[in-house]
Amino acid sequence: KIGALIFSLAILGFGYVALGAVPTFLFAFGFIGGWIAWVSVPSRGVWRDIRWPFFVSLALFVVHRIEERVTGFFPALADLTDVPTPAISSPAVIGLVLCSVGAWLFIPYTMSKDQPIGRYLAWTFFVSMGVTELAHFAFPLFSGSGYGYYPGMASVVLLAPAAWWGMRRLAFGQR
Question: Rounded to two decimals, what is the model's pTM?
Fold first, then answer.
């Protein structure tokens, strides 16, 4: 469990170097929150219980990332935080993507093998998608232009509930 915590902290380190303090604070909800859920919630769900919520959430995450890209999320975030958008090829961004999204792609394998790390990764994925992504609804409050659409907001309406479904199934199984 300490190794998973160190992994979560490494992701936060990459996030801080790449995007600054505010996004790192938000990432902490997913990765530290996922770690806390993993060590404190008795997970009864197995791979067959979370398979559909995982794939639905993953597909919606891809849609969400496309929406963010098309609508200029990272420039908007840079305006909000005064931290310039890093180059996609920067070591910190590469590390952030490999450690987070890369690890999440191993959820089907690790969960199907009933490996504890699979549950940890599943918790971080579902908490990141179901809790952290809700920040899109808070960003307009800090934008200075009144409350309205913020880049990436529309897809979270479907993504977050799909992740909540995954958290429920991970915690309680299919019952």
Answer: 0.93
Nearest CA to 56 out of 150, 114, 129 is that of 129
User: Which pLDDT tens digit goes with each residue over 70-122?
Assistant: 999 999 999 988 888 888 888 988 989 998 999 999 999 999 999 999 999 99
CB count within 10 Å of CB 157 equals 11
Q: Nearest to residue 1, comparing CAs of 30, 49, 36?
A: 36
